[in-house]
Amino acid sequence: MALLETRGLTKRFAGLVAVSDVNLSIETGEIRGIIGPNGAGKTTLFNLISGALKVSSGSITFDGAKVSGKRPSHIARAGLVRTFQRNAMFPSYSVLENVILSRHTEVKSNFFQTIFGTGHEEEAHRERAREIIRFLELDEHENDLAENLSHGHQRILGIANALATEPKLIMLDEPVAGMNPTETRMVTDHIRRLRDEWNMTVVLVEHDMRTVMGTCEYISVINFGELLMEGTPDQVANDKRVIEAYLGSDDYDL
Amino acid sequence: MTARRWTFPLFIVAVIAVLAVLPLTSRDYSVEIYILLLINVILVVSYRIPATTGDWALSHVVLMGCGAYTTALLSKWYDLSIFLTVPLSAVIAGIVGLILVTPLVRTRGFGFFIASFALGEFVRLIWIKFRYPFGGPRGMIGIPNGEIGQIDFFEPLPYYYFVLVVALISLFIMYRIDRSRIGKTFVALYKDEGLAEAVGIDVPRYRAMAFTIGAFFAGIAGSLLAHRLGAVDPKNFDINVMVYLIIWIVVGGTATIWGPIMGLVAMTVVFEWSRPLLEWRPLLFGGTLIFFLVFLPGGLEDLFFRIRDRITGKRSGGGTV
Q1: Domains of chain A: which residue ranges?
Q2: Domain ranges in chain B?
Q3: Is B315's Cβ below 8 Å from some Cβ in A?
Q4: Measured between alpha carbons, how far is A181 from B78 in angstroms, rounded to an integer?
Q5: CB atoms within 10 A of CB B11
Q6: Can you tell me the distance from the alpha carbon of B98 to that of A45, in angstroms, rounded to the nearest whole number?
């Protein structure tokens, strides 16, 4: 059975249908791309799956359990975590503290153990946080305040915070937005290593066609809130409907 | 680093030493003021806990009142020892806090502010409406001052030391909460609620926890106050008192646990000095509030940390971390 499955997923905003009857099925170990022209409903789809928005109809199943209708924090606890299009972080905390704070779902100590420091697990969290930071090559900036990082590093910190929850599946919302080519290559490299070395399933919503084509093995194309087609990058790039959908916008970059 | 590791414990020991010796050299009237000051320290620091999550409530003094009324009922009717009334009052205030916050977490910001006022007034109206058992608009009198063995807490000095011990324990626990992962989570969910939820922090649950912890310690403050005054009055817990609490915390700042204490001490000094200018006091306090909001939004602690950092030549400090 697929790791993440949506059945007839629909979202209506007062008459506007932003996402309409979308059926997705993502297997463990995939790097799945979700693309579509501006306003196609990609981010809405993301917000539905992560629980930030309530679904109008349809269902979402993750790891064999129904997650639609649950709060984002409960979905994160189940192992499905998302990053943001904006540079989301905990300002006034260092990079290391950001990642340690994001290990919330892994904390075992009870209230009293936590406040009196008798839980003896903070050291383990610190170690693991360092490991994640090293993996994403942010270790140079470990003690920098999050808000002082460059744009590119802040975006990577967003991924680090997501990884801190020890997810089974990570959904990245335009991870390379606003990055220069060097940074972009670094992030796509990280994404592949996440799957290859840490056995993570990755879902990627992206505008940058080169990134999607070069990183994902399978791509779902969304247009006007509907699933237009699915296929390998080659199939997608040569599909008439896809080209048509992009020709109508200024994103034509296939 | 080693210098800083020693300055802080030394500072704490020095403060405790001063607090232990000070009343011995003071008149009874001053000791009464120190007692109220210590009670208010517990109150204002407890108010900061939900404030770190961004929840500024107008119901906090009412929760203090819950502690005071619980103490009044328990010690008048059941003659319970002060060792029982104080913790039980804290627990009852915590439970009332949990009940109030359950609908309140659905609101945020200004909505929370106003809704907390409405719910607080609701509780206060219960005290006013029910002559039995709460004594109605006049409140309750004849609450025992409490005692330990032969030591009668009617005398200010022994009670001062009792309050000092309770305050130090309360502050220690609140300090530990603030420094722990839980305290940092409160701040983190305020900084970015969406991200907090996304990494698995149940934001409403944590906001409710912060509010309930605040209510618990407000209950301790209320209990200590009821024993001292020997009376409770619904007017002691109305919006006017709440405004003072807000002035203290705005003047002091909320970034660290020291801010509210600084604000409280500074404003208590101003309050005592301005006794001859009784009718000018609201103007004075209102002016102070506006001055701090406009020119020092970080409060006295911000000023303090900036001066300290300039002296020690440090880049930045204080902060919430």
Answers
A1: 1-79+167-254, 87-165
A2: 25-237, 238-321
A3: no
A4: 75
A5: 10
A6: 35
- List of chain B residues whose C-beta atoms are within 8 Å of the C-beta of residue A147: none
ipTM of predicted complex: 0.90
Asked whether the beta carbons of residue A71 and residue B176 sit closer than 8 angstroms, the reply is no
Least confident among A109-118, B137-146, B232-241: A109-118
For residue range B156-190, list pLDDT tens digits in order.
Answer: 999 999 999 999 999 999 999 999 999 999 999 99
Chain A hits for B191, CB-CB cut-off 8 Å, are: 90-93
CATH superfamily of A1-79+167-254: P-loop containing nucleotide triphosphate hydrolases (3.40.50.300)
Q: Is A97 on the interface with B (CB under 8 A)?
A: yes
Q: What is the pLDDT of residue B3?
A: 65
> Residue B59 in contact with residue B116, Cβ under 8 Å?
yes
| Binary contact (A89, B319; C-beta < 8 A) | no
CA pair distance A155, B225, nearest whole angstrom: 51
Q: Provide mean pLDDT across the span B302-307.
A: 91
pTM of the model: 0.91
For A171-230, write each residue's pLDDT tens digit.
999 999 888 989 999 999 999 999 999 999 999 998 777 888 888 999 999 988 899 999
* Residues contacting B142, CB < 8 A, separation 6+: B76, B230, B231
Q: Are B53 and B190 in contact (CB under 8 A)?
A: yes
Q: Is there a contact between B199 and A76 if contact means CB atoms under 8 Å apart?
A: yes
CB pairs under 8 A between A and B: 91
Among B195, B201, B202, B254, the strongest candidate for a mutation testing the A interface, having the largest count of A CBs within 10 A, is B195
The long-range contacts involving A230-234, CB below 8 angstroms and separated by at least 24 positions, are: A233/A33
Per-residue confidence (pLDDT) for residue B314, from 0 to 100? 66
Say what percent of chain A tops pLDDT 70.
Answer: 96
CB B85 within 8 A of CB B72: no
Other C-beta atoms closer than 10 Å to the C-beta of B234 total: 22
What lies within 8 Å, CB to CB, of B291 at 6+ separation is none
